[in-house]
Structure formats: C-alpha cells, structure tokens
C-alpha cells in the first residue's frame, strides 16, 4: 500500500515535536499541567509525563537547545497562522475527509492527514509550554490549540466515527498526540471536553486492542498501544486503564522462539519475518523507557521480573548493531528508504533511550550503559548527535548529560563476532573497522516493502556485506546511498540482473526463500557463515560463504546457477565516493583513471586498492569488472513519500560477471577494510597465508596456518582437508599456542538429530564439551558425535581439546 502517512512520518514529525522538548524550567503558563497535590496521583503522573516529553536538566539559552526552541516556535507560528478550520480539514493542506472511506492507498493518505493535524496541535502546545520559543504562554496560541482540538473532535476523532485508512493513524498516531496535548494543556481544557476526548480514544483503542498478543498488537506496536492506554488513564483519571497498560506490557518481555519480539541470541523481529532492531526495536526501547519512567514509584510501577529481559537486551541486542553513533542498516527494514533519517540519525534516539532506560536499571547497568553511550557519541565524527536536527530535545538533553559527565570513561568499540541465527544476521568488529551481513531464509524475508517504502530493497538479503572504518567511511550508507546505488549491485551480494518491479515479492516481508541452510559458527572472535541463496522471483541459486577473520573477510561463492535469460553478478564492493568521487584506485600496482565515467575488465587481477577505504585480494588471480560512475536518483524512486529532488553520487564498483544463465560459477576474494596499498599487495603476494580447501556446491572451506584455523561450511557431508562430516554443518577449528584447540560446530539447518564429525589430528584428551556430545580419540583422530542439534536453534556448540 502507498501512504503519505506512515509510522516513519509520525516518528519523524514526533522527533521534531519532542525536539521541542526542551526547557529545564517548565513554565506554569495558563493551560499548563498544574503542580499536583500530594493526594492526586494523576496530577503527579501528568507532571512526570510533561517532564518526559518536554525535557529537563538543561538551559534553554544554551546551544543547541536555544536554536531548537526557536525552531519550534517558528514551526508553531506557521501552524498558528495557517490554521483555518473548515469542513473536512483544520489546515487547507491537510484535508482528512475521505470521500470514499476504506483501506485503500488513498484512504491511508486521508487518515494520515488526520493524525498529522493532531501532531501539529502538539507542536503548538509544546511551543506554548516551553521557554525560549517566542510563544511561551501566548494566549492566542493556547486558544488556537483548544479550537483545533474541538474541531477535530467534532469532525473526525470521536466515538461515533468509523475509522478508515491506516489503523496506525487511529490507534497510535492520533491518540498519542491528542493525549500529549491533553497533558500539556490540562487545566485549559474543560472537563467535559476532556471526557469526550477520552471517549474517542476508548472508541478507537478499546481494552480489546491488547487482549491478545497477535497481529498489530505485538512488539513495538504493543508498547505504543500501552502508551496510549496509560495516558488515557492519566488524562481521564482512570486507574484501571493505567493498570491495563502496565499489565499489557508483560507479553513484550519474555524471549520468543518465533514471530515478533526478542530472541535469546539477541535477534529482534517485527512483522514476523523482518529483522528490525534499528527501527521498530528503537520504538519499543524508547516506549518502554518512557513508560517505566512514568510509572516508577507509583501504584502502577512495572514490576514484572521479566522486564530484566529488556535490560539484558541493551547489550545483547541493541549494542551489537550500534557503531560509532550509527545503527546498522541491516536491521532497519524499510526505514533505509527514508531520506530524512539515515543510519546515524536512527542510532542517536536508541542511545538516548538507553540512557532513559538506565534510570530504571541497576546502578551497575546504568553506569555501564552511560559509558557505552558516551563512547558512541564521542566517536560519531560524521554526524555528531548534538547536531542531529531530527533528534528531540529530550533525547539531546540525555546525551548531553552523558557527554558532560566527567565521571564516565567512554567504552571503546569491542572486538569480536556476533552471530544472530534467529534473524540471519551477523556483525564483526575488529580494531579499526566493523562489518555486518544480511541474509534470508525460510523464516527471514529477502527484504521488506510496504506503505510505498523500500521499493527496490530486493537484494539486501542476498548476502549484503556492509562495512565501516573507525575514522573513515562512517557515512558510506548515510550519504544518499540508497537512492543512488545500483540496486542490483549491492556490496557482497550475488544477484540476477533480471528486471524486477518496484515492490517485487509483495508487501510486509511475505517473500521468503525456500532454504534452510543459512547461518554458521563462531567462537565470538572469528566466524564461518554461509547462505544457500535462492533469488527473489528468479531461478538464481548459489552457495555463499564468509570467513570473518582478524583483518579480513574471506568470501567464497560456488554453484552459481540461473536460467532467467539474464546476467548473474557477484558484487565485490560498491563504494559510495560522495559527490566528488576522486579516490585513487589501483590494480596490481597500476593506477586507474580517477575521472568518471571509466570502466574496465581486469583480467588476471590479483589485488586492488581503493584509497581511503581498503583493499581486495583475489587468490590465484581473477577476472573482475570495474566501473567508476556518477549515479543520479531520487528518494521518490525508492519511497513514494520521498523527495523528488535529484541527488548524485560517484561510485567505484567491482564485480564478478558470471555471464548469462551461468552453471556452477564460482568466485573468491578477500576484503581488507582500511588496508593500505602496501599491505594489500603484501597479502596478495603471500600465497601461503590463505589456503582455499574447497569451493564447490558441496563444501566451502579455508585454512589459515598462521592463525591455526580451519573452517568449513559443509552444504553436504563429506571430507575437506582434515575434517570429515557425515551431514550438513558448519565447523571451525582453531589451534592455540598453549597446546589446546577449540572445535566449534553448528547445524544452520536446525534439522539434525545426529551429526558425526571427525578431525584427523592427534588429540590427547577432551577438556570440555556439551553434555550431548560423545567423543573418542583413536588412531590419531578426534571423533565427535553430536546429539539432537535441532533444538540448539543454529547456535554454536564448542568442544575444547588438548593436542597430542
């Protein structure tokens, strides 16, 4: 469906509103929520909520708060001057009367404008309450807000209206803004009017909206609905509503094994099949932080012990996807197509929410999280949080408090690997760089489109390999990447050039490849990850493996097959070089032209280097293609609510051309993020550093003698190097300097009732192993028999041995 109003629009606008959320000194202006008597719990809650949405703890005369408050005043002044109540609208450019009310795309637009009208009133109410807006306590502004509330109540948002368009506008977008205004202007609104507004909320958001944990009442949506119910109870003085909101949060807390929610491995899913830590997950985290803070110390405090799952998820689920201020696009779903909010601007609210959530956690957790946030915020040189124009002032104030806290030592980026089998994702951190991998399988969609968003994200689940440097390339995917990149050549992916329609495969993540073998194995430092790839609405098939090591990612592909009458390509990388794009590019020591357009077929290339980014090594030499080009697109091309202004960026792209309708094509390369030209050339010259043990449709494996490492993805059982497996599995063996070794095994298919692995290496004894593993050391070999691995959900099983 297409919509001019969506969660994205609401959240973006809310960010501007709460960007208003500023002054540390809350003005008791006419219409303000008055100080609550000690025996008025609802008044106390109104005071708390006002502080949460307006902000506290900073000076309205200090930057960046002073400018933000002035901007809020200017926006509120615009809405005040242009408000013109009429039949079917409150503003001429926001007609909400639907001539043919239903749930088609046109009705989505009309319902969105209805919610937008409430959000504009919220802007005006905040400008009235805040200091430094130029409209603080302005009676004309106050009267306009009251007039607007009455007009919308009479015209559209009342207990006699049947909803049309987007459910979200009626159940979350409009009532959240309405109830915020009711809190901010509580004393100025007549009791009879407040009762009508509450009745309208009860009509559109009845108690039954949270009666079952299904449909649109799960995860972030459930938290949003609970916020509406809680504030409805606060405004209406109804204890049962607040209690219902508190209790209805409980289904959000437990770890899940399917569907929406948080998983034990740190995954977060929304819409059943979409990894969404960086978008819906952000909403859920922020909403829970607000509700925990609102109800803390009251009769309705959230005391469910399972809320600790959310606290644990700060470091288990959210932190792994935050890197120097940004949240990785691999877990942002269709939000990647929203031009006004990039990966950094999505990361900053998560950081602020972690600070807020810490107020309800233990002292140790709070201190640890604040130190994490300080590190992320200090290192975000590309888009400093305090300069984020879409970040609310309440969030700004929280991050500012952390940056100003001299007792905190910022936490450095950790080194290590995290594998998320429940959402087919992985992250890898090394000193100087980080990477993220996105895949798809029978449970996790290729990509999500919906509401006219992310129309060309088709291949983001085809093994897209994102990477960033610590002090370079932090804007790689932030700087108009998505509307300008070739969507058939996303870095790391193997894709058919078969032309796809916008939104191909269907809305809301319904397109799932019929494959099971997706996942891998990790020792928390290195990893072997594999994807059995089947293309979206194409005949493409491939086996793809990534071996995440200390300074490189080794990438193998085999069994690449297609019968679409189209070329099939594997993109080594596709670097966004910005508007100028003159980074030097060298192949085997030969400098290539920096002017665009330029293209070439590089025959027998052993290495390539892109200055300011890193290096690429092709073991044994390879024929790859390269192009330096200027690409122009519009956000509207990938998001029907996006800007129509053209944007241009220059790209340097490297890819393997497997030809039209290939059979059993292969590729192999190393990615070396941040490597110099000299280090890249040296790695290519060291033919013994990497041994490719197998790269076939049956197995893919490598050995790196200097690391003591052997890693194999067994698509089928067989023998590779010193390893023999009798069934599909992923294996990584590392020999250590102390005479021990670790053997890491997983079943990415989650189907094995038994697995036997033999390592042809002399082993003296087994030091430790899972209880379900039996072992034997005979004839100089180690034999491991694994029990039922289907219940391990693709998790790594580790056996430690002492070498003979």
Please specify the SSE layout and strand pairing:
Elements: H1 7-19, H2 41-54, H3 65-82, H4 105-129, H5 139-155, H6 167-184, H7 191-204, H8 219-236, H9 239-248, E1 261-262, E2 268-270, E3 274-275, H10 280-295, H11 308-318, E4 322-323, E5 326-327, H12 343-358, H13 363-379, H14 393-403, E6 416-420, E7 425-430, E8 433-438, E9 464-469, H15 481-484, E10 494-496, E11 518-522, E12 527-534, E13 541-548, E14 553-561, E15 567-576, E16 585-587, E17 590-592, E18 598-610, E19 614-634, H16 635-638, E20 646-660, E21 665-673, H17 677-685, E22 691-695, E23 699-704, E24 709-714, E25 718-720, E26 723-725, E27 729-735, E28 740-746, E29 755-759, E30 763-768, E31 773-778, E32 781-786, E33 797-803
Helix pairs in contact: 1-4, 2-10, 3-4, 4-5, 4-6, 6-7, 6-8, 7-8, 8-9, 8-10, 10-12, 12-13, 12-14
